[in-house]
Fold:
Amino acid sequence: GSTTVTVTVSDGQFTAQDSFVLTVTAVNDAPTLGPIAAQTTDEDTTSQEIPFVISDVDGPPQTCSSQFLSLSSSNSAVVSPLSPVGWSGTWPNCVGTVTPVPNANGNVSITFTLSDGTNAVSKSFTLQVAAVNDAPTIEPIADLFTATNTTLTGIPVVINDVDGALNCGPSSSA
Structure:
């Protein structure tokens, strides 16, 4: 805004004064993001909710949404920046919901960025996605028919374990 400033000087007998207009031009101050603590979650969890606080002296964003917030990841094999990020909460208390890549684990640096359209600020934190033992899988085996006293060989069995280690051995049930 603008205001008129009047300066008066006196020597005890005479006075003099002059006025000028002082105009203060508003600037857009950068928003702020509060600290975000390191987080831990197990692999294969559907999502990890991460609370954080935002502010902007120029006025708050109306929502905690992708209009103002974004995410980047240091390791897209653990947390893909292309995976959907859920933003929720009511300003200034926001929550970012991050979904790790299925069957992926390790430490990843996640960066949340808040933009007011002109200025942006970012905060990074570590998300540790802990490994869990996944169950092995076996594809359906078709029923087989054979004559008595006949040895069966070459029965196709497809097994898998995303964790890598499998112990296989024959077993049967009557």
Observations:
- The mean pLDDT is 88.
- The two ends are 91 Å apart (CA to CA).
